Each structure stands twice: as C-alpha cells, then as structure tokens.
Amino acid sequence: MKSLFMYNPVSGKGKILKKIKYIKNELEKVFDLVEIYETRSALDTIEKAKAVCGEYDVLVFSGGDGTFNDVACGIASCDERPILGYIPSGTVNDIAKNLKISKNIKKAVKVITEKNIINHDVGMINDKYFIYVVGMGTFTEVSYRTKQKTKRILGKLAYFFDGFKDFFSPKLSKVIIKGKDVDFEGVVPMVLVLNSVSAGGINFNMRGHLNDGVFDILAIKNGFFKGMLNLVKTIVFAFRKKKQNSYVSYFSSPEFEIICDKDITWCVDGEEGPKGNVKIKNLHSHLKIYAPKLKRDKE
Q: Which of 31, 110, 238, 254 could form a disulfide with 282 if both were Cys (CB 3.0 to 4.6 A apart)?
C-alpha cells in the first residue's frame, strides 16, 4: 500500500516536528511506500489531499481540527478516496476526542499501524464539506477568532479568555429549521449541528454518533439572561438522551435547511464558514478512517 504522511508544522505548539522520523519509520513497517509532505497553508492542504486521491491508498496527516477539515474538503469530492490516518497535534483536537484517538503521538501512530478501519459520515453545508460540527450564535466565533500566536502560548486557555466577553453580551437570533423529521421556529442563543460527542472541547452530545446517517441538531432555548442559563446547563449536564428537555430543543435529520439572519456567520469545524441561510446534508459512510473500535459502533 502506498501512503503519504502530511503534517501541519504550526499546529498546536509544533511538537510534531520532533517526531517526523519516528512516524516515518513506524509507517514503513506496515506500508510499502511512505512519502512526507509539509503543508504550507489551508489551501495547500486541501489541494494536496485532493491530489492524493487515486494516487495513494492511505493519507496519514497531523494537525488540529482545522487541518482535518481541510483534508476532508480535499478528498470528499473525489470518487477514489484514500483511507485516513490521523495524528492529532492541535490545541483542542475535538475530532480526535470523538474518534477516541490519543493525543500521544506514539499511541496515535499505533492506531494507524493496527489498521482498524471505521466509516465516518461527512456533512455538506451549502457547497462546503465538514466533519463534526456546524454552529452559530454565542461563543461559536471563538474558535476562529482566537489568534494562533495566543493559542501557542496559552493552549486551551486562549479560547476561554477570548470567549469570556461573549458571556456578558450574548446574541439571540431567530431561526427556522425545516427538513425531514424537523420543523422548528424560535429565537435562540445558539444552534449546533453535531456529528460528534464533543465540540469546542465540551461534551455537548453524549449520545452522538459518527456514522448513523443523520445529524443531531441542538437549539439552545431562550430564557434567563438571553438563554445563557440554558447554555450553561447544556455545557454542565450535556445532552444525554435524544428527546426534548427544559433547556434544549432536539432534532435529528439527514438533510435540512436553516433560515436565519443574513449577518449570522456559521462556524464550520472550528473555522469561519458561510453567512445567513444554509442547507445541510449528511453523506453517510463517506470516509474511511483508522481508529480504535468504538463501543457504540459495536452496538
């Protein structure tokens, strides 16, 4: 099998740079060919990932959630897509948490060399692909608004300091959600579309599944202090059962439309996305990834 190892040198605190030789040696034990590529930008990552399709059997890559999104955007439109191997090296690493892949580089490489493959849904928001989360409202801008230099110094605390001011100036937006098995209209502080358990380092959706063909939609209800109390409840207690409760309106659907204010900016896998109305669609089992076998997948 031919493989390419692609890494983001500025992701996290650059710790991956000290492990390049180790990773290459380990991959050469299980793959016939291992080539190395250092990415230069998000666009470069997308274009290189797309070029891998049909040329390599496996694409191993290292970076954070943004890098994962770039790789997915690169290969998702191709007919022949390589198996993905992920070595997390970002600040939050939500996707690694959802996949149960360790942030320890040696343990992450071991997952790849063991070659256990799982399927993973991919989403489309308008014409852009995403892996695990789309969101709008209070706090959702923090992930792409926080400067890379600050993240390198403070790590996860950088998001906390940047988002602290949002708590005292929450946003409310009127949204209409229409699609298969969903018909909702309301004024809310936040909407999350999840293909995951974790988003922003928080376990919002304890019943989340990575490959069930639908997205979980959480609309945080308005209430005390513009819904901030309900948002705090969601963060503290998480969403554990797929039913309505006092602080979250819940829906699941494979395809739907969200109509909202034109100035609303959507956060897509931690990066700045489209504005205003969006159409979202689930591409079931679209990717194959080396990962530990998840208990919920066995079930």
A: 254
